[in-house]
Amino acid sequence: MATSGSIVVSRSLPVIHLDLLRAENDSECKKLLNACQTYGFLYLDLTSDSELCKQWEDMLSVIKQYFKQPLEVKMQDARGSDNYGYEPIGTEEGPKPKTRDGYESLKISRREFLKGSTDLTTSVRSESDLFFAFIKNAHTITLMILSRLSSQLGLTGSSRFESYHTDPGPSFSTLGLLRYPKHDEAASPTNVGHNKHTDVGSLTFLLARQWGLQFLSPETQRWELVEPRPGHAIINVGDSLRFPSGGKLASVVHRVVPLKERQEEDRYSIAYFLRLNDDAMFCDSTGKTWTAKGWHDFKFDVFKNPSTLDANGQFLTGMMEENDRLVESGHKILVAQ
Ligand SMILES: O=C(O)CCC(=O)C(=O)O
Ligand SMILES: [Fe+2]
Fold first, then answer.
1. Where is the segment annotated Disordered (predicted)?
2. Assigned domain for 216 exists
3. Ligand 1: does its nearest atom lie under 6 Å from the Cβ of 199?
């Protein structure tokens, strides 16, 4: 697969090895820092961790079964929340004019993991061991990545990134299970993909086997497709790491758009969203102070209605982008922490 329309497949994303990061291999940790400074987007090679790869497989079969259920059954898990429960298609604005998004999601929050139980329905509760084991794994890996980044930047004590995430929190860290259903051939799709955005939290650990993910490349200033690689996660830096890093770490503007006009098969993604503790504070690139909870709540409102709440397009993409181009000031944070 070389291109889709005028969108090229990225050839430049760095690959970082989980086993080498775990072993604190210095050159791998330097590569990690470099990837997060340049792109805020990288492949994490998980092939050394067969247990994690098996969990990925198991999660996929469970979520396929879950989403197959009728809408009214899934709606019993709807909690009107952005970080746990079921959300139907079209909750947010879509990437194309006059469209809403083309995915449904089930979120299992780390708060439920810490509590040791979920109050969602039986079809979720019966798989909670698997979901909780995955949350534990993804949380440990993302915190380990933060620790390697903190060390590479020479951060100590309470200024280390991990220290914004200590238990018992609370935080909005959550596991998101997403399905972009195949489009019906008959009608022109009105629910498509996932609008451009930067992630709200600190790091995202994303597993997706199918095409569709694109990012705005800081090198080419174009949308580039991310090739799904077996045994590899995508790690991306979110607003709540870029801002507290004083802009030293980059965040990536990304979106999901079907390769052709229609989504030709069901697309699944599994995302662990690591987020700061609710009361952690940082400044955005205009110097405004936010709590992590405040930023999360505001940005999720924006996702639903960017055209009214974010007419200048600042918040959706973390002040990094205008009209599908990255802005010069995007990496600078006025008031570094
Ligand atoms: O579905 C995907 O591959 C990406 C999802 C995403 O970017 C998000 O949920 O923040
Ligand atoms: Fe995202």
1. 82-101
2. yes
3. yes
Closest residue CA from atom 1 of ligand 1: 269
**Ligand 1 atom nearest 255 alpha carbon:** 7
The pLDDT of residue 336: 35
Q: Confirm whether 109 is domain-assigned.
A: yes
Q: Checking DSSP bridges between strand 223-225 and strand 7-9, what pairing results, if any?
A: parallel
Is the Cβ–Cβ distance between 91 and 306 less than 8 Å? no
Judge if the beta carbon of residue 36 lies within 6 A of ligand 1.
no
Those residues whose beta carbon sits under 5 angstroms from the ion ligand 2 are 199
Q: What is the Å distance from ligand 2's center to 176 Cα? A: 10
The per-residue pLDDT for range 11-35, each reduced to its tens digit, is: 889 999 999 999 999 999 999 999 9
Cβ(207) – ligand 1 distance below 6 Å? no
Residue 194 CB less than 6 A away from ligand 1: yes
Q: Nearest CA to 247 among 310, 156, 320?
A: 320
Within-domain flag for 290:
no
ipTM: 0.99
Residue 27 domain-assigned?
A: yes
SS3 179: strand
Q: Is the CB of 254 under 6 A from ligand 1?
A: yes
How far, in Å, CA of 7 to CA of 193, rounded? 15
CATH of the domain at 46: 2.60.120.330
Over the stretch 169-190, which tens digit does the pLDDT of each residue have?
A: 999 999 999 999 998 877 778 8
Domain count, the chain: 1
Residue whose token pair is 């979520």: 63
